[in-house]
Specification:
- The complex is a heterodimer.
- Chain A is α/β, with parallel strands linked by helices.
- Chain A has 13 helices and eleven strands.
- Helices cover about 35% and strands about 20% of the residues of chain A.
- In chain A, strand 4 and strand 5 form a beta hairpin.
- The model of chain A has no long low-confidence stretch (mean pLDDT about 90).
- The longest helix of chain B has 17 residues.
- In chain B, helix 3 crosses helix 4 and helix 4 packs across helix 5.
- Chain B has eleven helices and 13 strands.
- Chain B is α/β, with parallel strands linked by helices.
- The chains are: A alpha/beta, B alpha/beta.
- The interface between A and B is large, with 44 and 43 residues.
- Bound molecules: adenosine-5'-diphosphate (2 copies), iron/sulfur cluster and magnesium ion (2 copies).
Chain lengths: ~325, ~350
């Protein structure tokens, strides 16, 4: 059984015009369709990577999976039960077992708590261990994320750099020993030499204890390194999913091809071809039906503008792309 | 491949540059004893992690340091002009923007929100050149075209631009007066990959059309590899190693360069294991009396903790600051092993 399954998961945000526009000019409110009909499952011990440009719905998806934002439509199925209708015990188990690491940890760290108390907060609230053990685990977790406990336990969030705050956020999630970690761009504020260390820690803990993860990043090179499977999103829709090497080495979808082709390579001899798409990403405000990439896609035809092909979760290991036109795309291995 | 360079091939020559900040924690030696040249028509890349002194270095050259900073250099020549010898007025009138322009690190926020983007570039031109408004507008339309912005966008306000468009507008501004040297401080940091790709491609095209040199600053090893002719790797306020791009990637000498390469993922090499560099960068408080990398270096000798290594030349175009640079062959092998980096602490 999958640990988490998303079934037609959808989230819209309403933008209401100002009072005058609404009442006098009769302007209707508009919908930002941030996440649209996602179907995907994450197995036990599996790391699902989510890639896509800013605004494609990655954070909104994370918040829904972590139970921090209700879906507009669709289901989140945790170990077989639909969270919306599950009993209190299941929901409580979900809250404890699914931990989130936030993109900007500044918002999520209580400014009046010291680092040690921030990391100890979760285990204390759920009385996971006695005080002494909580203290020991907090210390070793801080050391594990590269924050020397002697130096950092007594500090407040405002006394930390962005990278240090991010590490406190990571320690707070990991110390709970969750079965699933939702990591929303957890390394974006860290320097390269330190990033690899956090990835190591992540992998080590995964080997030792095992946990699943939804790992979000706009950096495909990092996802190629951590994820088992990869999902690529564009303006709220899932464009492609599959085992990470397959998606990166032989992307199917025209958007995935462009995205992967645009990633710079740390080798001065490599010359990359020019990506084939033009235009800029917009926002999914009252989008027409169909594939949201169609307006920028060099291969789109009427079917693309009319209907969107949803991914199908029946076989989670399959490499598939939500594209009507796969049969006309050129072969282009990287 | 190597050729002898003469002084008139250099756009910029810097020797022994240092910058200090006075802070409540003490004197921060943000840049210490940095020397380099930028040749005509080349992209000189400076790569290093945050806080290593990249922005400070170029702010010193452009006299944009805050009041708590002071800087000095044995030599700082732009073509044949002594940058430290000019008066402030002279510098502002004749060098800044005219000869050396800057795309600042926070370029996204560098446009004035209440003026139209096109007007801001027109103003920048008319401050330095006696040209009519119409002529300046024509020039701005050309510049917008060069950076890939449609001319009608000149009428827009900054808030109507995406991050990538604002960045392109700042690059247009930096080109306005045909400077001989353009300095770009993290020009694509924080932008999405497709936008970054398009801007970098545009910078490459511009470089082949005009005769300016570019200093490109970034913490992104992949970007620096793709863009630069020559590269300096900066750590703790000093250049640890500098060389032409191919040599730096294929024959690195410095332990920090070796470590960075291990730590940086490549989309072309999925399975390869990433190796981190344990520890954290120096605070830069107090003068440099050691190798700045010594506390994190698995190869350090006793003297590394008490002496600052001087640059050593390897061939025409490769300089290294490390007491163990003669052992590079051996260190390259060791550095590829994860256990080498673990054995510290
Ligand atoms: N609370 C909100 N109210 C209105 N719009 C929102 C809200 N949260 C997100 N959005 C919009 O939903 C879209 C997806 O956002 P997000 O999930 O943050 O994307 P990502 O994390 O991929 O950058 C964006 O267009 C964003 O502006
Ligand atoms: N205005 C300032 N006052 C005091 N210290 C500063 C100031 N600006 C930068 N520094 C310090 O100088 C060092 C180099 O900073 P910077 O040049 O911004 O690095 P980079 O651009 O490589 O990230 C850092 O230690 C930083 O904290
Ligand atoms: S000088 Fe010494 S400490 Fe510095 S990099 Fe070389 S071996 Fe390591
Ligand atoms: Mg996000
Ligand atoms: Mg900087």
């Amino acid at each position: 059984m999958a640990l988490i399954e998303l079934n037609q998961l959808t989230r819209h945000f309403e933008i209401r015009p100002g009072l005058v526009d609404r009442t006098v000019r009769g302007k209707p409110s508009r919908l930002i369709k941030a996440v649209e009909s996602l179907n995907i499952a994450v197995g036990e011990n599996e790391i699902l990577g989510i890639a896509g440009e800013s605004g494609c719905g990655k954070s909104t998806t994370c918040m829904m999976i972590a139970g921090l934002l209700p879906p507009t439509r669709g289901q989140i199925i945790y170990r077989g039960s639909d969270l919306a209708t599950a009993d209190a015990a299941v929901r409580k188990e979900h809250r404890r077992n699914v931990q989130m690491i936030f993109q900007d940890p500044y918002e999520s760290l209580n400014p009046r708590f010291r680092v040690a108390d921030i990391v100890a907060e979760g285990p204390r609230a759920l009385r996971l261990w006695d005080q002494k053990e909580i203290g020991d685990r907090v210390e070793s977790m801080l050391a594990g994320v590269g924050l020397n406990p002697g130096k950092y336990t007594e500090r407040f969030p405002h006394e930390l750099s962005g990278g240090e705050r991010q590490r406190v956020g990571i320690a707070s999630a990991l110390v709970m020993q969750p079965v699933m970690i939702i990591a929303d761009e957890p390394l974006s504020m860290l320097d390269v030499s330190i990033r690899a260390g956090i990835l190591d820690l992540f992998r080590e803990l995964q080997d030792q204890r095992g946990f699943s993860s939804v790992y979000v990043s706009h950096d495909l090179a990092i996802l190629g390194n951590v994820a088992d499977r990869l999902m690529v999103m564009y303006l709220g829709q899932a464009m492609e999913v599959g085992p990470v090497e397959q998606v990166i080495r032989s992307p199917k979808h025209p958007y995935t091809r462009a995205l992967i082709g645009a990633v710079a390579v740390p080798d001065p001899r490599v010359k990359r071809p020019v990506p084939k798409i033009s235009g800029d990403i917009s926002r999914p405000i009252d989008p027409p039906p169909g594939c949201r990439f169609a307006p920028r896609c060099p291969y789109a035809d009427d079917s693309c503008h009319d209907t969107f092909l949803e991914l199908d979760t029946s076989d989670p290991t399959r490499h598939q792309a939500a594209c009507h036109r796969l049969h006309v795309l050129p072969d282009e291995g990287l | 491949m190597t050729k002898v360079t003469t002084a008139d091939e250099f756009v910029l020559q810097v020797r022994g540059l240092g910058v200090r900040y006075q802070t409540s924690q003490g004197t921060v030696h943000a840049v210490s004893d940095v020397s380099f040249e930028v040749r005509k028509n080349e992209v000189f890349g400076i790569a290093g992690e945050s806080g290593c002194g990249k922005s400070t270095l170029i702010r010193a050259l452009l006299r944009l340091l805050p009041d708590n900073a002071d800087s000095a250099a044995e030599l700082a020549l732009y073509r044949d002009q002594d940058l430290y010898g000019l008066s402030d007025a002279d510098f502002r009138q004749n060098i800044l923007w005219q000869e050396i322009s800057l795309v600042p690190q926070s370029a996204m926020n560098s446009l004035n929100p209440v003026y139209r983007v096109g007007d801001q570039v027109v103003e920048a031109i008319r401050t330095h050149r006696r040209v009519s408004k119409a002529e300046a507008r024509g020039r701005v339309a050309e510049l917008f075209d060069v950076v890939g912005l449609q001319a009608d966008l000149m009428q827009s306000f900054p808030h109507e631009f995406s991050g990538g468009m604002r960045q392109r507008a700042m690059i247009a501004m930096s080109l306005a007066l045909d400077p001989g040297l353009i300095i770009m401080d993290e020009p694509t940091t924080g932008l999405d990959v497709l936008v970054q790709e398009r801007i970098l491609r545009r910078i490459r095209e511009i470089r082949s059309e005009i005769s300016s040199s570019i200093i490109l600053i970034t913490h992104d090893i992949a970007v620096i590899a793709e863009m630069s002719d020559r590269i300096a790797i900066m750590y703790g306020g000093q250049f640890m190693e500098q060389a032409n791009a191919i040599d730096l990637f294929e024959n690195p000498y410095h332990p920090y360069t070796l470590g960075l390469k291990n730590a940086f993922p490549s989309i072309r090499e999925l399975g390869s294991e990433l190796i981190s560099i344990p520890g954290s960068p120096p605070t830069l408080v107090g003068p440099v009396t050691n190798c700045p990398f010594q506390p994190r270096c698995p190869f350090h000798l006793d003297r590394c903790a008490s002496e600052n290594p001087l640059p050593i030349n390897f061939g025409e175009d490769h300089q290294v600051r490390c007491f163990r640079s003669e052992d590079a062959n051996q260190l390259r092998h060791l550095a590829a092993e994860k256990s080498t980096w673990r054995s510290l602490n």
